[in-house]
Amino acid sequence: MNTFDNQVDFAAKTKRTFFRYCKISLFLIILIGLIGAAPETFSQSGSINDEINSLNLKIQNQKKQLEQLATKQKEYEAQIAAKQRDKANLNNQLAILENRIAKAQLDIEGANLEMDKTSLEIKKAEIDSLNLDQEIEEQKNHITNLLRLMYKQEQVSTLEILLMNDSLADFMNQIKYLENANTEIGKNVAVLKRNKDQLEHNKETLIQKNLELASLKNQLKEREGNLIYDQENKSYLLEETRSSEREYQALLQKAKQEQQQAQAEIASAEQLIRQKMSQQDKNRLDSGSSDMVWPISSHMVTASFHDADYPYRNIIGEHTGIDIRAKQGTTLSAAADGYVAKVKFDGSRNYAYIMIIHSNGLATVYGHVSAVYVATDQYVVRGQAIGRTGGTPGGAGSGSFSTGPHLHFEVRLNGLPVNPLKYLP
């Protein structure tokens, strides 16, 4: 057998070996393609990385500023608590309001910083996603090109492949090279998968960050409202007392009497109406729904149940409900089905309220009403208009210490105040 025949015979033996590594060469071309594209990609990614690093620095700076604000906010909270423990006098009350105003201003600043930080995080996530999109698209293009090359390569005979190499040693070195590249190719394929997974994660993060930004905008609006409320509160107090301690103490006593009288009337009215209800009335009450809805369209709570920051905590005691900001004259609805147990309203500026009893030992109280549409013993259904809100200083039903339009809303269980937010949707 001559030398040429030996070469052909050897080629036939290695035919399967070569095509077994064709798949490896497929990935090798991907790798070579990626390496070939590296200079341009590096240039682009270098610019992108610079922008991302800049964003990271800005985000860290925002975080530091937020930490500093949090420290200041705690200081104001401590000052408010200290003043609330002191004797109730005009100076202390003004100090509480001034600290609340300062804290509200910090809250607004903090909300703006949070919004700025979240906007930067959104921009960073968008850049990351765009970068990954480009990398994935480039990898897809390389794979497409490779498939075309592989199709052409499979059309070449073993003899032609041998003839393309200078020697059998070159041919075997090519196969050995493909074997050694296999491990590195696998790593690049894993990177491609990780990029796709990271891209999906970035998209989810982006959705979440946009939701956070919307929430922060609502918080900012609420905090701006709180600032205005406290500023009006302080102005009203100064106007009402004329900066006189004597006037303040007179106002204080009047407010205490109003609240004590209201609490006593509410407790008595609930007991009385439940006792005098006929069995038919009780059956109707029990058949009604005690599931509650918000009594007004606004859900902006300015003072929570037993709020430690409530400015009049040292005047009338614990806050027995929640205050919901609402414009003067906002339509007020029954939170659940029930009987009207008490209506206190005479058109004057004295504290006015409506009380409704429900099934399961529940009752609701609606304070600072400026108009009333219902009467005692009347049955009402959830969502039915029962009056209008008030609270504007000096307005009908506002009471002595109301400093801005809002609804005071209470929920009582077996005669005792409980947190309304546990019953509202």
> What string, H for helix and E for strand, traces the elements in order?
HHHHHHHEHEEEEEEEEEE
Largest β-sheet summary: 8 strands, antiparallel
Shape: flat
Number of domains: 2
Helix content: 55-70%
Descriptive notes:
The chain is α+β, with helices and mostly antiparallel strands and 425 residues long. The protein folds into 2 domains: 3-238, no CATH class; 246-422, Glucose Permease (Domain IIA) (Distorted Sandwich), CATH 2.70.70. Helices cover 64% and strands 12% of the residues. It has helices at 3-20, 22-85, 90-154, 158-164, 168-241, 245-276, 279-287, 313-316, and strands spanning 301-303, 322-325, 331-333, 338-344, 353-357, 362-367, 369-372, 379-380, 385-389, 406-413, 416-418. The strands form 2 sheets. Strands 1, 2, 4, 5, 6, 8, 10 and 11 form an 8-stranded antiparallel beta sheet that branches. It has a 3-stranded antiparallel beta sheet with strand order 3-9-7, with no helix packed on it. A hairpin with a 2-residue loop joins strand 10 and strand 11. Helix 2 (22-85) packs antiparallel against helix 3, helix 2 runs parallel beside helix 5 and helix 3 runs antiparallel to helix 5. The longest helix has 74 residues, at 168-241. It is flat and about 90 Å long. The relative contact order is 0.09.
